[in-house]
């Protein structure tokens, strides 16, 4: 009896905590605080709501960085956000070869547009253009280092870099990466 009561209390406490972290609950709380005249409290809750929504979105995006792609195994995923930019990065290894995949996006429309413009500029200055899953890309291979950069329709840039893999291996890896699915998810 005591055990079941303790389990019930713990479950109730956890569900209360999880509900407090729910973006819907947080946004509703921000609206109620605003309506009651507590502007500072409303701003704080609204910021926390946005933070939780961004974490959910980042976790969704990270799910496209699969654990294994084209016989390469992924290391830990790194996520960083600063100054309106989001960066998700994962290094993949196979024997003595590695390929680092970096997704760079903006938190807002202006930043996303800036990334798209930078990607387009890079592709127009490059003579080595390729298509990866119906997206424009440029590839640079210099002194054994290869960088393939894809301009995403969602406004981000997806880069594949290696100084241990051949140009052909990097292209094959990029073609196996779920680029189209990732880009589509970012546009939702």
Mean pLDDT: 81
The CATH architecture of the largest domain can be given as 3-Layer(aba) Sandwich
Main CATH class of the largest domain: Alpha Beta
Number of helices: 6
Biggest sheet architecture: 9 strands, antiparallel
* Class by alpha and beta content: alpha+beta
Total tally of structural domains:
2
Overall form: elongated
CATH topology of the largest domain: Protein Transport Mog1p, Chain A
List unreliable stretches of 5+ residues: 1-19
Question: In what range is the share of β-strand residues?
Answer: 25-35%
Write the layout of secondary structure elements.
Elements: H1 2-20, H2 23-35, H3 39-62, E1 68-69, E2 72-74, E3 78-82, E4 85-94, E5 97-106, H4 109-125, E6 129-132, E7 135-142, E8 145-151, E9 157-162, H5 167-176, H6 179-187
Antiparallel strand pairs: 1-2, 2-4, 3-4, 4-5, 5-9, 6-7, 7-8, 8-9
Tell me briefly what this model is:
With 188 residues, the protein is an alpha+beta fold. The chain has helices at residues 2-20, 23-35, 39-62, 109-125, 167-176, 179-187, and strands spanning 68-69, 72-74, 78-82, 85-94, 97-106, 129-132, 135-142, 145-151, 157-162. Strands 1, 2, 3, 4, 5, 6, 7, 8 and 9 form a 9-stranded antiparallel beta sheet that branches.
Can you put this structure into words, describing what you see?
- It is a single chain.
- The protein has helices at 2-20, 23-35, 39-62, 109-125, 167-176, 179-187, and strands at 68-69, 72-74, 78-82, 85-94, 97-106, 129-132, 135-142, 145-151, 157-162.
- The longest helix is centred in the first third of the chain and has 24 residues, at 39-62.
- Helix 2 packs antiparallel against helix 3.
- Strands 1, 2, 3, 4, 5, 6, 7, 8 and 9 form a nine-stranded antiparallel beta sheet that branches.
- The model is unreliable at 1-19 (pLDDT under 50).
- It has six helices and nine strands.
- The chain is of the alpha+beta class.
- It has two domains: 2-59, no CATH class; 66-187, Protein Transport Mog1p, Chain A.
- A hairpin with a 2-residue loop joins strand 7 and strand 8 (145-151).
- The relative contact order is 0.10.
- The protein is 49% helix and 29% strand.
């Amino acid at each position: 009896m005591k055990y079941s009561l303790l389990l019930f209390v713990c479950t109730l406490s956890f569900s209360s905590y999880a509900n407090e972290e729910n973006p819907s609950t947080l946004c509703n709380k921000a609206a109620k605080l605003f309506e009651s005249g507590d502007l500072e409290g409303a701003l704080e809750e609204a910021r926390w709501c946005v933070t939780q929504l961004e974490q959910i979105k980042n976790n969704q995006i990270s799910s496209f960085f699969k654990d294994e792609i084209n016989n390469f195994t992924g290391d830990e995923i790194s996520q960083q956000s600063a100054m309106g930019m989001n960066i998700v990065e994962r290094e993949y290894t196979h024997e003595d070869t590695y390929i680092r995949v970096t997704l760079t996006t903006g938190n807002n429309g202006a930043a996303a547009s800036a990334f798209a413009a930078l990607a387009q500029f890079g592709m127009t200055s490059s003579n080595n253009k390729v298509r990866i899953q119906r997206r424009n890309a440029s590839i640079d291979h210099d002194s054994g280092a290869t960088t393939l950069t894809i301009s995403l329709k969602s406004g981000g840039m997806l880069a594949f870099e290696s100084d241990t893999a051949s140009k052909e291996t990097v292209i094959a890896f990029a073609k196996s990466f779920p680029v189209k699915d990732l880009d589509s998810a970012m546009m939702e």
